[in-house]
Amino acid sequence: MAVPVLKQAGSLLARYDVLISDVWGVVHDGLWALEPACEALTAFRERGGAVVLLSNAPGPSPQVASVLDAKRVPRQCWDRLVTSGDVTRALIAESHHSKAYHIGWQSDRSVFEGLGVELVDAASADLVVATELNDYRTETPEQYRPLLEDFARRGLPFICGNPDLVVHVGEDLLPCAGALATIYEELGGSVAWAGKPYRPAYDLALAAASELRGGRTVDPAKVLVIGDAVRTDLAGARLMGFDSLFIAGGIHREETMRGGQVDPAGLAKVLDGLSVQPVAAMAALA
Hints:
By secondary structure, the protein is of the alpha/beta class. It contains 10 helices and 16 strands. A 7-stranded parallel beta sheet has the order 1-16-13-12-2-3-4. The protein has a 5-stranded parallel beta sheet with strand order 6-5-7-8-11, with helices on both faces.
């Protein structure tokens, strides 16, 4: 059966106690907040629901919260924020490595703070942590292949601090650290993925939701995942046994949208082959 396409999500959201929502492509477009989405999340909270934002952003949650503020995402539309940066910090601590080579923005280095890890050059490293490309507007993942080949030959573990392959920044589609990790796995390297669609990220989100609900166990049937990426959001929901709402106007919009509306044929093609389909789709959350 075709996935229903909604104009408004209020009656759907009312069936759930907890929303685990993607951020980039759902709550903001990389530049500014998407106001109808923020209003929908706020209304859900006002009815007693809990909203956990789960982002593959590579910075720790306090840093990313400041970014959301700058993009005018109102604090009243969410309760908790869990990021790939939070998971990355846990993975770095668990690795027991002390010399890391970092690929990514200078501001992302907050993931190393307080962990006793020295940032070193490529030749001295015993661990690789990629949070982004160093400059995703001018570089391509393939430019990193020689460096990644050297790391793979040496058997260095690789922590991917953002499993997304690409991300929209306004109208531009730009590469993320997940594209580097994919190359590293192709080269035979070992990758620990810090974020969606992997369980550690959802475990942190569920723990936050449980705390918000007074320590009560969260019923998986009462959790809805909202996201725009088949590979991360929908796959993570499927892994955890949660329902999902697919935002077609996000990362897959070139395939799923025509004239500002959801194209049923394009939507069906993008969702084809999924063992569990989303309960509904929307152009944008509202």
